[in-house]
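Side project, low priority. Logging it here so it doesn't get lost.
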Amino acid sequence: MDPASSIEALENVAASEETRPIVVDSHLDLAFNALSLKRDLLLEIEEIRRREEQMHSYGIPTVSLPELLRGNVKVVFATLWTNPCNNQVIDVRPCYSNQEEAHGQALQQIEYYERLEKGDRGVISIIRTKDDLEDALTQSDSRNSVGVVILMEGADPIREPKEVREWFRRGVRIVGPAWKATRYAGGTGAPGPLTQDGRNLLEEMQSLGMILDGSHFSEESFFEALDRFKGEFVVSHANSRVFSPSDRHLSDEMISSVTKREGVIGTVLYNAFLDGSWKKGSGKEEITLAHVVRNLRHVCSVAGDRLHVGIGSDLDGGFGAESTPKEIDTIADIQKLGTALAREGFSTSDVSNVLGQNWIRVLRRALPSK
């Protein structure tokens, strides 16, 4: 399918959609998938899958721009994520072995988002300001566009703390310093505190009004960052340790600490993160939306309300449709979660908050006016 046909398909999808709850997804590796996996995200998902037939080593694709439109996903936190060469889980090239390589690869990813925005008929709009957010939420005459908040996951592309100012100028509004261990912090599977560079980075971010993402922090770095950083603190994609016990996820104390700061926690739609007993290769149908609701309900119980949880699906983030809940085939199926929540006693307002409004409230507070 040529680019013009791809964009026409996006417009046809947008024009045909009825009004449904707004979805905000706080974690998608769009640029990594497009550049490292060579996925043309403008295509229909069936075509992307056809092109990768018999080579789904990274998982069966679930995300495309047409599917985002079908699901009324108005805003996504789209990542700059670069793969460290010592990563034993995801063996995808290019990878980085030093900060210069990480910096260069992240620049290529942000340039990808800029190209999608600046094309003749831009298919995304990068959200840099409060006005940009409102435009993305209310657009009517060009509904073939998805609003994108740029989130850097793992801060190694920032070669020194002061360089975060240049990334902010380019449109980055959220930074998660950790992934595994980075120059800046201990992370998943790599215990340790913030480094001195990490402390300096948080100071620079706070002065710019950036949002800090606590995903992947080691517990020591997590609580130190909470204490030091006085700006908006969120967790874009992590679940409860009650159901998936590992340092990748949040203890009840961590959940409570985030919610007391008025932060929001994004629930990941990966079966192994919804139930730690599920292993890759197990039946997809063993995990359902009931498990998603269970995780959401637990976070709400710890928070004492339903205002601090959302969706950070991480779909196509190292897994695919074979590893998502039974009812989730593509990202458009997040709409089904609203029905599942309603069946479990969540009010219309609660459903709206969980699917998108909780994240929108954070962005309205945190984004700069201009």
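Brief comment: The chain has one domain: 3-8+23-366.
Revisit when time allows.
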